[in-house]
């Protein structure tokens, strides 16, 4: 077990024309489970490969337990990596696959190796498969073998590169829990890369969000969910995504009036956390609100504490309905192909008809504002002090 530190890590490809990882600083505590998430090409795998020693950083350093391992060969790093495609030797038995790393990197006796492999196989529930070859196993079993092979090495650090992407949805959920259980039991510092924000949110003690090779935010999943540092993070984390609406802000003492940039509404934020936005400068902003923080009531009388919206689609998902709305009293998605979706997640008993005009209101503790130019979240001066978010 060990702490892991990435210091100003940078990786360029093609003579510098591609910057895969850009000045990444990250401290991971001993025993911590960190998930790294971001869109395709944001530098997740490259970061992991640098930690494993499979890719050399262009600049920056990697420390494990305070020791600089940047120039240490992959074979001599106490790091085990689990890949999406299992990477098992097809002609070796499961026993031989799992023992291979031990044979290469330790001077254990054959008996010791056998015992270690058996213990790890037992932990993964695959002890009956040790004499089989990978071809005889299902995808889920192969991934258990790959995990077992990582465990036998008793590494300082576990690295997971999208290990569950090849499995079906049900198996993925089971394996997520297995990996969490394993990590908790063994207490091994882990970095888990995925492009699936739900996986990242549910599995990690801490989540790291990358975009274009740059660190966007890191923190406990719920903290990041409630306090995204910019519009990218706000939109990436959470499903369905946060709604964004262009607004013109007109602050007043104790609140702010938000006027829809397209003229479709005026809405006053006056309570809870949002009232602190009264301190901001007037001008253009992006309003952000998650679907579950939108309240919908039937009726077409608008005030400054509701916004009229026209129902485009009603999507039942069992316990809730997702309402796809056009702000304003007219449905626009028929004339504008790219009319932005505004989604409200409401209890299943709220079932308006398509074309109905409803009134929406926001949970004002959960309203976000972002700078139009930079996407940075606007932090009202005393926002935390007003009402901490639940
Ligand atoms: P994905 O989720 O699609 O696997 P990722 O976030 O893991 O993406 P990386 O594989 O780390 O992203 O790639 C980051 C960037 O670096 C991409 O633009 C990619 O094309 C580029 N890149 C990665 N490896 C190489 C390489 N060996 N040569 C050139 N460019 C590379």
Question: How does this model look, in words?
Answer:
- This protein has 390 residues and is α+β, with helices and mostly antiparallel strands.
- It has two domains: 231 residues, P-loop containing nucleotide triphosphate hydrolases (Rossmann fold, 3-Layer(aba) Sandwich), CATH 3.40.50; 135 residues, Nucleic acid-binding proteins (OB fold (Dihydrolipoamide Acetyltransferase, E2P), Beta Barrel).
- It is 23% helix and 33% strand.
- The strands form four sheets. It has a six-stranded mixed sheet with strand order 6-7-8-3-9-10, with helices on both faces. The chain has a five-stranded antiparallel sheet with strand order 13-12-11-14-20. The protein has a five-stranded antiparallel sheet with strand order 15-19-16-17-18, with no helix packed on it.
- The radius of gyration is 25 Å and the shape is elongated.
- The chain starts with a strand and ends with a helix.
- The C terminus is likely disordered.
- Bound molecules: adenosine-5'-triphosphate.
- Adenosine-5'-triphosphate binds next to strand 2 and helix 1.
- The site of adenosine-5'-triphosphate has 13 residues, from strand 2 and helix 1.
